[in-house]
Amino acid sequence: ILKIIYKIKNSNIFLLFKKGNAFKYLFIAALSSLIVTFFDLKTISLIPGLIDSISNRSNNSQAIYFIFFAFISGFARIMLSYLSTKINIKISSNISNLVINSASKTNVYELEDFGTSKLSQVFSNDIQTISNELVYPILQIITSLILTIAIITFITIKIPIITIIVSVIYVILYLIFIKTSKKKIRRNSKEI
């Protein structure tokens, strides 16, 4: 485990995030994801009451609770998307400022030989690539991971036996799929 932590700390992505002040923003995104997940789970937990309210037309209070929390959950999810976009922009902006500041320390004659327009094109393309293929997916992974863990925990608490049985079946099917896929890939690669 220490070897993995060492590799992560010395990776270019970690250094890029550290220089871009990204960890603070990723923490804010994770905290926001927890809040959104709470509202999502509360909405999910109100579904049985909604069904009861629909079948017994006299008791509409459960339906009102469900609609209220579904609205808050949807609004919180929209705000999380907005916040994720802002965080993505801020991290990209910090990284681009670092790149431009480091380029300003370079010899002017070397920059002139390379070409200013070509240099700005390379910078903007690289920063756009970092933003689209690194920062935004990491924000999505954080959000999805928190939501997945929370839903699995919630379901395990509510219906533990069924959750464990379905999980075991899923893991077995996944392992069978991986094993057969590896065999086919190895066999196909030997044929080529």
Give the helix/strand layout:
Blueprint lengths: L1 H8 L2 H8 L2 H24 L1 H9 L5 H44 L3 H7 L1 H43 L1 H32 L1
Helix pairs in contact: 3-5, 3-7, 4-5, 5-7, 7-8
Helix count, DSSP H or I runs of 4 or more residues: 8
Helix and strand string, N-terminal first?
Answer: HHHHHHHH
pLDDT < 50 runs, ≥5 residues: none
Proportion of residues in β-strands: under 5%
- Total beta strands: 0
The secondary-structure class comes to mainly alpha
Largest sheet: none
Question: Quick one: overall form?
Answer: flat
Can you give the helix content as a percent range?
over 70%
Output mean pLDDT. Answer: 76
Question: Cα-atom Rg, whole angstroms?
Answer: 24 Å
Please report the distance between the alpha carbons of the first and last residues: 37 Å
Search tags:
single chain, 192 residues, 8 helices
Please give a structural write-up:
The chain is an all-alpha fold and 192 residues long. Helix content is 91%, strand content 0%. It has eight helices and no strands. It has helices spanning 2-9, 12-19, 22-45, 47-55, 61-104, 108-114, 116-158, 160-191. Helix 3 (22-45) runs antiparallel to helix 5 and helix 7 packs across helix 8. The mean pLDDT is 76.
